[in-house]
Amino acid sequence: MKRRSNPTGGSSRTFLPVALLAASCFGIGGFALAGETQTIGAASAQDSAKQKEADAEKQKTADAKKQKTADVKKQKAADAKKQKDARAKTQDGITAKKRAEAAKKEALKKAAQQEEALKSEMAKKRSARSRLGRKTAPPESAKVPRGTAVPRKPDAAPVPSGNKADKPVFGPDLSPDKKKALQKEYEDKVRASGQKQAGKYGAIPRPPRNPNAKLGIEFGTEKHDFGRARQGDQLTHVFRMTSAGSEPLIITQASPTCGCTLGEIKIRDGEGAEPVLYKFGEPIAVGAGIELEATLDTGSKRNDTQVRIQVYSNDGTAATTTLTLKASIQPFIVATPPYLQLGNIRQGEEKTARITFRTSGGERVALSRDETRRVPVPEGLSVDVVAVSPDEEGKSNQWTATFTVSSETREGPGGFMLRMNSDVTLPEKKISTDPAVAAKQKLKNGGKPLVYTCDANISYSVIGALSMTPQYISLGLVRPGQAVVRSARLTAHEDGFDLSNVKVAVVSEGQQELKWADRFVANVKPVSGSNAVDIELRLQGLPEDADGAFRGRVQIETGHPAKPELFLRFSGVCRKLAGNAQRPQPVKQPRPVSPVKKPGGGL
């Protein structure tokens, strides 16, 4: 057998294994490619399933969000409808109330017209009787509708019913038209007066307290502290409250204390809504916000200060709500000392004292005396105010006021208040929306701008060679037989003068005779350790029939050349039953004696 030759030059044995190996390689590669293809297909299917699950979850989330949004819109629509119904209900109540008030006014008007007609008819009958000039029988009583006021007498004005509008302002001699005109004028004045009294802060009749109405305010916000502030600043704060009950709230009045002014009270019905001006007495819808603006005027305040605002409402829990504003006021100008007491000054001596004015912040200002005060400087007292180390414009942060009591000042007490005005104007006050209050603000101080001021006071007493304290004594209310003792002290202010020779006597007051003069005795008693004596007046008891007032004087002969004679005045009243007067005691009646029973039942 012949072997085939290999075209490549090798043998056929060699070709067969090579071919088998190639075939084997190609087969393995095909199988590997097929396995890889299958793996990729499985992974793609798994990713597709995950994507579908993610899309489903996303769609579910979106559907839930849409449902939630729809629920929120539905709830808002329901709430809006509920609020609208509540407002409509409140408006219906207000309309019904207004209709009732209108009907009441119309009824009163008809009654007044009927009363006027009755008065006119009675006036005509009186006029007719007077023309006849003879007595006639009284006119027949006219039929008057029920509820109409009828005069008590034909010729008398109507009896007031307690209402200012019913007060008669005319007499029987006027014509009916004139009476009617005067009555209308009076009612208009009363109505205008009532509106003026009601004012900006309410003061209208208070409705009964409603347990379902509540003025709500967050705890702690009913008080506001501004902290430190400069005197003259206008500190404004807005208190925020709500109508927190289940029924409408009604505010009738807001009353501030001195130093506080109220702005407008506004109502905010819902978030984002524009606030509207509130009128006292109108109902405030449930849930509505209340804004009350208050201003603390520090122009007349110093140191720690606070003001209060009383808000009156129909709150069933607390009809009065108190709001408070606090601040620590730092004065712009400080006087040291603010009160200067010079004490007793002997007549003929001169005494000087000083008060210093400083700005609390070190500002340089120009000070001048307030010349608008009508109280003049007392005679014998002089005041000189100068700046300490002033600048070129004459301004300084420290000024000194020197007070001098001259040697020629008359005997007696004296005092003066010095007011210094600065050249620094106070912050402008907010002009009130109330025309009446605004007019007063503009007229105050003559339209001139207000400036920072500071007051300082000085007091003293000029004493002569002799002084007596007190210069008048009262014996008060006495009863017959009662002893009373009163005294006054006479002091010598000259060391070399001796009071041992003082003589006293009880005399009458002017030309009026002293009653029961023999019952009054005056004595002189020395005071140990002092150049003084006590003038003692003793009432030794008035007669049993004494009744009435008495007055007199104790004449004192001092022996001093400047004051040789002084007088101590006294007075009193005697009443028979005054004080501890004994009342008559009832006479005790003897008790009846019970008969004694004998044994056996006999007496």
What overall geometry do the principal axes of the alpha carbons give?
extended
* Number of DSSP-assigned strands: 26
- On the 0 to 100 scale, the average pLDDT is 77
Please work out how many helical segments DSSP would assign.
Answer: 3
Strand-pairing-aware structural class: alpha+beta
Order of helices and strands: HHEEEEEEEEEEEEEEEEEHEEEEEEEEE
What's the story with the biggest beta sheet?
5 strands, antiparallel
Radius of gyration: 51 Å
Helix fraction by DSSP (H/I, runs of at least 4) = 25-40%
Strand content: 25-35%
Give the low-pLDDT segments. Answer: 1-16, 18-23, 25-33, 132-172, 193-200, 578-585
Intertermini distance: 195 Å
Strand order across the largest sheet = 1-3-8-5-6
Could you outline the blueprint of secondary structure elements for this entry?
Elements: H1 12-132, H2 176-198, E1 215-216, E2 223-230, E3 234-243, E4 249-256, E5 260-268, E6 276-277, E7 283-284, E8 289-297, E9 303-313, E10 320-330, E11 333-336, E12 339-346, E13 351-359, E14 367-369, E15 381-387, E16 398-405, E17 412-425, H3 435-443, E18 451-463, E19 466-469, E20 472-478, E21 484-492, E22 503-508, E23 520-526, E24 532-539, E25 548-557, E26 565-574
Parallel strand pairs: 2-10, 12-18, 20-26
Antiparallel strand pairs: 1-3, 3-8, 4-7, 4-9, 5-6, 5-8, 9-10, 11-13, 13-16, 14-17, 15-16, 17-18, 19-21, 21-24, 22-25, 23-24, 25-26
